[in-house]
Amino acid sequence: MHLAVPQSGVWKLARDGVPPYWAWCWPGGLVLAMHIMTNPQIVSGRTVLDLGTGSGLVAIAAAMRGANRVLACDTDPNAIVAARLSAALNSVSIQTSLADLLDGPVPAQEVILVGDLFYKAAFARRVVAFLDRCLSEKRQIYVGDIGREHLPRDRMLSIGTYPLIDFGEPATAEPRPAHAWRYIGRMA
Length: 188
What we know:
The chain has one domain: 3-Layer(aba) Sandwich (Rossmann fold). It is built from four helices and seven strands. It has helices at about 25-40, 55-65, 75-90, 120-135; strands at about 45-50, 70-75, 95-100, 110-115, 140-145, 155-165, 175-185.
């Protein structure tokens, strides 16, 4: 993966000494990628959208586990480049899209993957509205998250738990549970 480590060129993209958000393996993406790697039936033979792909980790996991086609989407052009380069490093093929899909139509892909997009309240509301529209069109939706404040737990079914250390915490920190979820929408 093309991530923010001292020997990578990613540091050249830093603003005020801070590398871009996508230059880390965020725990939601990491737990979702882990879950896909151990449960390939989620993506195998299907078309997949990795919403907010960042580094491309989740898209790459889907491609490695037999997805028919993978579209990695993000709003940051550098994230798109990093995802393409990281896919090449892993000898998999993904398509990329530089776009904000949240207010648009339901995408054609059968499976929607979402890692760590519930970090701000207003943004989380947009993501939930988008996912609800996707669910109404029979898309299968999987989410990875370490328990962020704005995660809509009442719309999720936990399908896997993995111990992870959150990005930015010291390596000596105690791992906490990160979840892979199936997005099921509002309960009746």
